[in-house]
Amino acid sequence: MERVLKELFGLDSFRPKQKEIITSILEGKNTLGILPTGSGKSLCYQIPALVLEGTTIVISPLISLMQDQVEALLENNIEAAYINSNMTAKNQAVVEARLRNGELKILYVAPERFNNRTFLNILEQINVPLVAFDEAHCISKWGHDFRPSYQEVIPIIEEKLPNADYIALTATATEDVEENIIELLSINKENIFKTSVKRDNLKLSVDLTFQREQFILKYIAEHKNTPGIIYVSTRKDAEKLGGFLYDNDIDNVIYHAGLKKSEREYNQNAFVSGQKNIIVATNAFGMGIDKRNIRFIIHYNLPGDIESYYQEIGRAGRDGQLSECILLSNSRDVMLQQFFIERSNATEEQKENMRLKLERMIQYNKTTKCLSSFIIKYFNPDEYVENCGMCSNCQREDKTIDITEESKHIIGLINTISLPVEKTIQVLRGEQAENIIHTELPEHPYFGKLSRYQPSDVHHIIDELVMSGYLHLSNDMLSVPLLGNEILEGKTKMHSVPFRRQFKELVNVSTDT
Ligand code: ADP
Question: Hey, which residues does 479 pair with through a beta bridge?
Answer without folding.
Answer: 472
